[in-house]
Amino acid sequence: MLHRCRRQVLREKMDLIGIVCDEHCIPGKYYCLFCPKCKGGRLMERSLSLHVIPTGDFAMWRCFRFECGWAGRIFADGRLAFNGFSKTEKMVGRSSKESLVLEPLCDELISYFSMRMISQETLERNVVMQVVGRQQVAIAFTYRQNGQLVGCKYRTMDKRFWQEKGTAKFLYGIDDINDADELIIVEGEMDKLSVEEAGFLNCISVPGGAPSKVSTDTIPPIEKDSAYQYLWGCKDYLDKVSRIILATDSDVPGQALAEELARRLGKHRCWRVDWPYKDGFNRFKDANEVTFLLSIVIHKVFAPLKVASELYNRNE
C-alpha cells in the first residue's frame, strides 16, 4: 500500500511537469516516453528514458535527443525535485551523477570492458558509469578534477560519442598526474584505461578527436586556441612535467594530433610512441588495440621513444 501511495504521488508530480506516466509504469523498469521539453523533435521520437526506482522513492529521467538532453529526478516525499537542464545550459560547478542520471555499470558493459582486458577494479577507480538510452545503455566516462565531477563523455558500444555541453575543457584522468614528473597522453578514454591496466597510472587522454592534418598556421594565442583549451585549462599540471610520452593513434590524424600537442607542450620534452606491427604491413592503431600484448611488450613500446624534435620540424 505504501509503495502504491508513493507511485501515485510521483505520477501526480510528474504530471505537473508534463511527464505522462500512468499506472502501467512499474517501479524498477525503464520506459521510453515523449519528452515534454522537445516533443521528440521532428520525428516525434520517444526520446525520454524514465526510471522509477524499485522502492518508489523517486523517479529519474533523461531525454536522449542530442539537441535536448533534459534530465532530472523527482521525489515521492517532501524533498524538492531536481528539474534538470538542457545540454546547452552551463553546467560547470553543478554537475553530479544524480543530475546527469548516471548509474553503476550493468553486467553487459562490465563484460564489454572485460573482453577488452579492462578490469572492474580499473573501471571503479576511474568512476566509469552508464546512462540508459532509448534502446541501449551508453558508457559514461566521468571527467574529474580534485575528485569533483567537471564533465562527462558518453560512448555506445557501436562507437557513437557525445559530451555534455557547457562543461569545462579538461583532460581525462587529470587527477592521476598531480605528482607526476613524467606522463603519457593518449587519444581516448579506453586507451587511458588500457594503459592503466598495464601498470601506468600517470596517463591522461585528450577529450576530443584528432585533427585531419597538422595546421600550417602559427599557434594562436591561448584565448583563441579553442581546439586545445583542454591543454591550457590544465596548464598548471602540465608545466610541472619534465617528460611527456605522446601515445596517440598510429593513423594520420593521430600523428597530426601528436604534432599539435608537441608544438604546444614543447618538443624538447615530448617523446613519441611507435606502436608495434600486428602484421607485416600494419601497426596496431592504439593502446586499446594492443592491450592483449601491452603488459608484455610495454617496455618495448615505450623504450625506443624518439624525442619529438627528431620526428617533427625542428624550427617550430
TrEMBL record:
<protein>
    <submittedName>
        <fullName>Twinkle-like protein</fullName>
    </submittedName>
</protein>
<dbReference type="Pfam" id="PF13662">
    <property type="entry name" value="Toprim_4"/>
</dbReference>
<dbReference type="GO" id="GO:0003697">
    <property type="term" value="F:single-stranded DNA binding"/>
</dbReference>
<feature type="domain" description="Toprim">
    <location>
        <begin position="181"/>
        <end position="270"/>
    </location>
</feature>
<dbReference type="InterPro" id="IPR034154">
    <property type="entry name" value="TOPRIM_DnaG/twinkle"/>
</dbReference>
<dbReference type="InterPro" id="IPR006171">
    <property type="entry name" value="TOPRIM_dom"/>
</dbReference>
<dbReference type="GO" id="GO:0043139">
    <property type="term" value="F:5'-3' DNA helicase activity"/>
</dbReference>
<dbReference type="InterPro" id="IPR027032">
    <property type="entry name" value="Twinkle-like"/>
</dbReference>
